[in-house]
């Protein structure tokens, strides 16, 4: 018998359109804060055509802000 557990997937798997890109950034993000990673994936998703940004965190959380800009920049480069 096989049981499936939902809700435990890492952030990179929740954003399935980013799956082909996520593997290439995993090692780069390994030592970053969760806030940076959240910003990175939101910025990356925005670069790929579906704008996503937590405005409150973007303005108040430096790690999220830095991650958003880095993700947006790097994912633009991978989609061009």
Q: Would you list the SSEs in sequence order as H and E?
A: HHHHH
Q: Helix share of residues? A: 55-70%
Largest sheet: none
Low-pLDDT segments: 3-16
Could you give the topology of this structure?
Elements: H1 11-14, H2 19-29, H3 34-47, H4 55-60, H5 62-79
Helix pairs in contact: 3-5
Explain what you see.
The chain has a domain at 38-80. Helix content is 66%, strand content 0%. It has five helices and no strands. It is flat and about 30 Å long. The chain starts with 10 loop residues before the first helix and ends with a helix.
Notable characteristics:
80 residues; mainly alpha; 5 helices; disordered N terminus
Summarize the structure.
The chain is mainly α. The protein is built from five helices and no strands.
């Amino acid at each position: 018998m096989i049981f499936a557990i939902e809700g435990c997937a890492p952030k990179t798997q929740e954003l399935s359109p980013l799956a082909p890109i996520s593997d290439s950034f995993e090692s780069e993000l390994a030592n970053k804060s969760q806030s940076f990673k959240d910003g990175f994936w939101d910025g990356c998703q925005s670069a790929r055509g579906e704008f996503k940004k937590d405005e409150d965190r973007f303005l108040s959380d430096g790690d999220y802000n830095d991650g958003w800009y880095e993700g947006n920049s790097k994912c633009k480069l991978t989609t061009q």
